[in-house]
């Protein structure tokens, strides 16, 4: 029988609704190399590398009558040109035009009859740049051997540098220059799927009831029951004693999105960190708190001294037994723990806001072992796309009554990466919205920059660009406290 989806992975299929598609994305900006970078180049690159992510040539098959969880089967009609698509902005394409396109593309659900991913090459950006947008369903990010398609197309050097380098040096992947011959396995028939489910039910009778309950829509309960990898997360959810504060971020959401971006310099966060004895992540959360405060005031919302916005913050962690030096690409596993942090948006002083956040995070992480950027690179190459997806998975399975928004912060490598010789300049995460939550914030540090992606509901967040624009002001406030 083909591999069956884990209970957690299947739950993300059951959780999906028209207003909450369960895919995570990323927008990467590339500089055009002298040799050129076009659609055919990208398709060829995917054909070379897709063997590294075999799940991306598989689709989901449901078992008749939901007798068992769905299975992964090879897509015998797999067409890479269907999944890798081309779009263009009217030259010279601006950031506003790009973010509008991203919002529209991310609003569309993935085709459930095909492998659950898409990639878009967006041409026509100003200054001769291009963008690559990836969409991947959270059911594909299994938390055990998770690698995103956006990771495998990236190298640490250009093809020209590889050719000139001494033997033994190469890019981050090294899959060869020709696509490997792939022979899909035949799809099982409905009868075979039923027979496999019956055999499983005989061995474990309770699975029939569990699968029926999950497929009927009790997916949140299923996630909470089976996600042993996120045990700390759900224990925290059960013990939460206070509901999240009321904010304009928590409303019924639509099927459409808005997307906005912000660019900052990593050195500014490091300066604040050094001056105040905290972590870069503490500074990031303080910047988010400051931007949210100014955004709420711009809307005329009541902001009192004790006002707060509760964020669910997934962090990359490792256990005592983990040995990063021997970890390999694809072994990220469930190294994500999530913490609830009350962002003090009612506090006018940026320094006091930072101290509040630092104290809260120290309490949370006292027993955890945070993974630094260098370790993440050793574990999974260019880890941010996968870790943002794991963070989004954690948020999707948690009660939305106890937090207002998700903030995922994943450190990336501080050196340039390339796709077929095109240098990646920036990378903006697109974190999916949870039911009843109008905003999700993702950010990634890469090659000296810190890049924010704000994914908002189109109706509830018409001013998401205003919030993104306030990030610089909130960071400047903190930098101004450094002597």
Features:
483 residues; Diacylglycerol O-acyltransferase; Chloramphenicol Acetyltransferase; alpha+beta; acyltransferase; lipid biosynthesis; 6-stranded mixed sheet; 3 domains; globular; 16 helices
Helix content: 25-40%
Uncertain ranges: 168-176, 218-240, 317-334, 367-383
The tally of helices reads 16
User: What letter string, H or E per element, gives the SSE order?
Assistant: HEHEEHEHEEHHHHHHEHHEEHHHEEEEEH
Report the β-strand fraction as a percent range.
15-25%
- Within the largest sheet, what's the order of strands? 4-5-6-1-12-11
The number of distinct structural domains comes to 3
The tally of strands reads 14
Average pLDDT taken over every residue: 81
The H-level CATH homologous superfamily of the largest domain, spelled out, is Nonribosomal peptide synthetase, condensation domain
N-to-C CA distance: 65 Å
The CATH class designation of the largest domain is: Alpha Beta
Q: Examine the secondary-structure arrangement and name the CATH architecture of the largest domain.
A: 2-Layer Sandwich
CATH topology of the largest domain: Chloramphenicol Acetyltransferase
What would you call the shape?
globular
Secondary-structure-derived class = alpha+beta
Report the C-alpha radius of gyration, rounded.
22 Å
Main pleated-sheet profile: 6 strands, mixed
Describe the protein in words.
The chain has 483 residues and is an alpha+beta fold. It folds into three domains: 167 residues, Chloramphenicol Acetyltransferase (2-Layer Sandwich); 37 residues, no CATH class; 213 residues, Nonribosomal peptide synthetase, condensation domain (Chloramphenicol Acetyltransferase), CATH 3.30.559.30. The chain has 16 helices and 14 strands. The strands form three sheets. The chain has a six-stranded mixed β-sheet with strand order 4-5-6-1-12-11. The chain has a six-stranded mixed β-sheet with strand order 7-14-13-10-8-9. The protein has a two-stranded antiparallel sheet with strand order 2-3. The longest helix has 19 residues. The chain is globular and about 65 Å long. About 14% of the residues have low confidence.
